[in-house]
Structures are given as C-alpha cells and as structure tokens.
Amino acid sequence: MVKRIRRRLGQAAPVSGNAFIAVERNPQIVTAACLTVLSVVAIGVLLYVARAYMLPIAAAFVFAVVLAPLCGRLEWMKIPTPLAALLALIIASGVAYAGFSFIAAPAAHWLDDAPKTLKKAEAQIHKFQEPLKTVSNISHEVDGLSLAPTTPKARTVVVQGPELTESLIASAQVIAIQGAFVLVLTYFFLATREDFRLKLIAFQPKLQHRVRAARAFRDVEKRVSEYIATFSLINIGVGVAVGLACWQLKLPEPAMWGGIAAILNFVPYLGPAVTVGLMGLAGLATYDTLLQASFPILAYFAVNTIESNLVTPLVMSRRMTLNPLAIMLAVSFWTWIWGPVGGIVSLPLLIMLKVVCDHTPVMRPVGALIGGAIERSHERGIRGLFGHRKPATDDDEETETPVIPEAVPIKPAPEDQENAAAA
Q1: Which residue has the higher pLDDT, 214 or 16?
Q2: pLDDT at 184 (0 to 100)
Q3: What's the rounded Cα separation, in Å, for the pair 395 and 391?
Q4: How far apart are CA 188 and CA 201, in angstroms?
C-alpha cells in the first residue's frame, strides 16, 4: 500500500545509499564542494603570506568606511570631495593624536621605571612561591636520582641575535612606513568612494541587483560608522571608570591605565585579557600583599562585567546584534593572520560581512548565523506613517513596493456630474 501511494505521488521507495546515488548522478556537487574548500584554504594562505601588503589595505578600507559619514557631511557643506577627504583624515588623525598623547607622558614615565617595577614584581612572585619551595626541592632531588651511567653533557651553541635597540629601530621604521601607506590609501578610498560606488552599481545587469547593491553600500557605511562611534563612546566610559578606580586604589599613573583599558577594549576578549595581565603586574609591583595586588584586577573585572553584560547589550541591541561565537572566531582568526591590528579590524570586517550577507539572498543564512537581522530606518518610518507594512516576498522583497494608505473617496468635479446626467 505504501509503495502504491509513493508511485502515485511520483516518489521512489527509499533505497540504501541515496547520497551516493545522488553524487554519481550529479558529480558537479563534489567538484563544487572541493573547489569551495580549496578556494577558502587558498584565500587564507594568501592573507597570511601577503599580510605585510594586505593588512594596510584592509586597515585603510575600514578607516575609510568609518570616516565616510564625516566626509559626506563636509561635502554637504559644499566642500570639494578631495578637500573634504583630506579634512576628514586630518580631523581623525588629530583626535587619535590627542588620545594617544593623553597617555603618552604617563606611559613614558612608567616605562622609565619599568626595570624597577619588574624587579619588584619578581620579588613578590618569589615571596608567594616560598610555600612551594619544599615541594620543588624534593622534585629536584628525585630528578637527580638516576641509575643510568652519566654521559658528558653536549656543548650548546648559542647564536646571538640582534640587540634590542636594533630590533626596536627596525620595528619603528616598518610601523612608520605602513602607517604612512595606510593614511595615503585611506585618503584615496575616501576621495574615490562615490565614483567606485556608482560604477559598481552600474555594472549590475538588472534593476533589482542595482537596488540591492546601492542598499548594501549604504548599510555598510551606516552600520559600521554607527557601531564604531557607539563602541568608542562606551570604551571612553570604560577608560574613565578604570582610571578613577586606579586613582582611588593609589595605583601609579591612573590616566595611563584608563587609556590602556579603553584602547584594548576595542579588541573583544583578547584586549581585556591583556589588560588584566598588565594590571596584575602593576598590582604586584605596587602593593605588598597578594590581596592588595588583586584589587586593581577586581576593579577592572567589575567595570568590564557591567560594560559587557549591561551597557553594551542595552545600547548595541538597538542597532545590530552579533553572535558572541562569531565575534570570538573572527577576532581569533584575524589576530592569528595579521596580529594585534587584525584583532582591531576584525569587528568592522565582521559587520561588513554580515551586511553583505543580509543583502545577498544566497548568503542570508550566513548573515543570520553571524547575528540578528538589520531593521532599516526607512522601514520604521513607513510603519510609523501608515501603521502597517505589506509583507515582503522573495520576488519583491528588494523592490520594496510602497504601502498605500486607505483609499479616501474623491468627490467628482461638476463637469463630470453634468456629463453623467446628460448621458
């Protein structure tokens, strides 16, 4: 009976090995899967090998997207695009320089006292290791007991590397060259962004694709700039709170610790971990007991807990919600590929990927996995004006047919009434 129903419905009976039969009938599935895996691996290897060239380009692109609203505001004031891009870059550089100079002097003073600080911290660590000294001595004595005949130790050859000063000078030169390259690329990204956007939209074959590309450009610029601006304000609040806590705990250079906490908080998960390690080292070098040395870490934990569990979800949930697992994977991947700068640009790149996925029908499941859907501002405006919205379908979801309010009866003109009476 079941077989008869399946024949009537045009379905075949279940056969063992359906997956293998499907692969045999469609070998292009295996080919496409293999090519996809190989492409992903090749892109990862390319990003890692060419990181010295790709990292400045990615950083400049992120900075250009963040500064695009400021450049657009300057263009709205009738300033030419090249000059507006230059002014936006100068304003951003001035703000960054002011922020770093605020913590530069305390950091230089702390670095001058770094040898003393490290020696004091090492002495505190040795003091805490005294209870374990007996166990350590017993372990060494057990390791010294050996029944095998002793053999002379082999000579070890130590190759002396470059001195610390030479390494720092070489690193400073590389950072200066890449920083200048990033500034130049950011300027050209800002100056040519509108021309690039119009050309990419014009290359789309259909009107629906052009509308989708235009909305993707708009949402990338808006979402990334809003996210970075809001996150920057939150991090400034974190820095102020940590600085006040360090000042209350009599920790040296509280302004520097507040600035470090604000800057490193831009790198999710990894930044706070580094901040905890640095504050723990400062606590060991400042206080005499382990309990007192833990006070700065506990204060930072309190501030970070309030920020990550209350302030950031409350503020960011109105704009965009990202999956914590996706954030962790993105930060770890880009930090592994490009180092600390990769961790800083990982969050903007993840937001861009999510926006592109949301505007590409094939990639929408990936966008849903990265985070919640984007609610467009103009949709809220239409819903507020007319009180309802026509449900979107797969065919017309990108064309966005406007919702027409309820029809209002129109009184016919007097001439139309006379013609109707004559008829």
Answers
A1: 214
A2: 92
A3: 11
A4: 19
